[in-house]
């Protein structure tokens, strides 16, 4: 069967478990990007199975996740006004970034999105932090854990975890306090323990599994919309992500939203 860039496919050898978009074809090898999962992979053309659904239908996962977040914005707007925390979202994938920014807009949270290749993030993060001065920083994109390259604690077994870790380290040079700059870092299969150890409040992936494109943004949104005097219900917010505690984890963290009175 002939395939072209932009086609939606699954991989026969992986039981057709994930829907991908073909983003490049070299000889008989297709470069694939998950439609909903933050994953880049490659596959022999002969291993691909065409998907008939259109991409808009496949992003219904976005709607399902958003529908479960109504309590995030269950605010008393009769008497009080609210100043949610400001988000800086750094993403290695421009398409996923757009989807995350649309999520922030839906809930009226101020967010700045910048698309940067994972390998360039650590050298550029300081200038963006100094310019935007966010309360919340998201560092994400694409990653993967390769079991054949080493155990979970071998940084060389990951596609981009070292880049995410270096970016977290640079961000912590800008602001050391975990309650003044909340950092959410990682992507599919990322080195969870190292990201937390080096300064992230939340990170992926405890079980080295894939995560949904919106998972880092869901946590950022909850942090933004939680009262600054209250701790986030860590189990509740992680349960709101696609794969729960297998995909995301973190430390108890305070919210970043100021509440004012009276509302005019």
Keywords:
8 helices, 13 strands, globular, 264 residues, six-stranded mixed sheet
Shape: globular
Main sheet strand line-up: 8-7-9-10-11-12
Mean pLDDT comes to: 92
Rounded to an integer in angstroms, the radius of gyration calculated over CA atoms is 19 Å
Distance between the termini: 63 Å
List the uncertain runs.
Answer: none
Order of helices and strands: EEEEEHHEEHEHEHEHEHHEE
| Number of helical stretches of at least 4 residues | 8
Q: Beta-sheet strand percentage? A: 15-25%
Quaternary structure classification: single chain
Structural class: alpha/beta
Secondary structure layout:
Elements lengths: L7 E4 L8 E7 L2 E6 L5 E5 L3 E3 L4 H4 L1 H8 L13 E3 L3 E5 L2 H13 L4 E5 L5 H12 L3 E5 L20 H14 L7 E4 L6 H6 L4 E2 L11 H10 L9 H6 L9 E2 L7 E3 L4
Parallel strand pairs: 7-8, 7-9, 9-10, 10-11
Antiparallel strand pairs: 1-2, 1-5, 2-3, 3-4, 6-13, 11-12
Helix pairs in contact: 4-5
What would you say about this model in short?
Helix content is 28%, strand content 20%.
What do you see in this structure?
Strand 3 (29-34) and strand 4 (40-44) form a beta hairpin. 28% of the residues lie in helices and 20% in strands. With 264 residues, it is of the alpha/beta class. The mean pLDDT is 92. Helix 4 (121-132) packs parallel to helix 5 (161-174).
């Amino acid at each position: 069967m002939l395939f072209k860039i932009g086609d939606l496919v699954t991989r026969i050898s992986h039981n057709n478990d994930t829907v991908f978009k073909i983003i490049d074809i070299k000889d008989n090898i297709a470069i694939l990007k998950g439609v909903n999962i933050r994953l880049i992979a490659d596959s022999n053309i002969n291993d691909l199975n065409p998907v008939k659904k259109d991409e808009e239908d496949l992003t219904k996962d976005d709607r399902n996740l958003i529908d479960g977040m109504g309590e995030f914005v269950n605010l008393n707007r009769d008497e009080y006004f609210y100043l949610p925390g400001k988000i800086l979202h750094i993403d290695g994938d421009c398409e996923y970034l757009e989807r995350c920014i649309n999520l922030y807009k839906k809930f009226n949270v101020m967010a700045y999105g910048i698309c940067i290749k994972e390998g360039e993030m650590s050298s550029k993060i300081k200038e963006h932090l100094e310019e935007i001065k966010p309360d919340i920083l998201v560092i994400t994109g694409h990653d993967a854990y390769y079991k054949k390259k080493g155990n979970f604690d071998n940084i060389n077994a990951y596609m981009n975890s070292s880049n995410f870790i270096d970016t977290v380290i640079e961000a912590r040079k800008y602001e050391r306090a975990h309650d003044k700059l909340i950092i959410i870092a990682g992507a599919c299969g990322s080195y969870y323990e190292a990201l937390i150890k080096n300064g992230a409040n939340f990170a992926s992936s405890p079980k080295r599994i894939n995560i949904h494109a919106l998972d880092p943004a869901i946590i950022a949104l909850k942090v933004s919309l939680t009262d600054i005097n209250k701790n986030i219900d860590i189990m509740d917010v992680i349960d709101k992500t696609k794969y729960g505690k297998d995909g995301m984890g973190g430390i108890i963290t305070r919210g970043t939203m100021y509440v004012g009175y009276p509302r005019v």
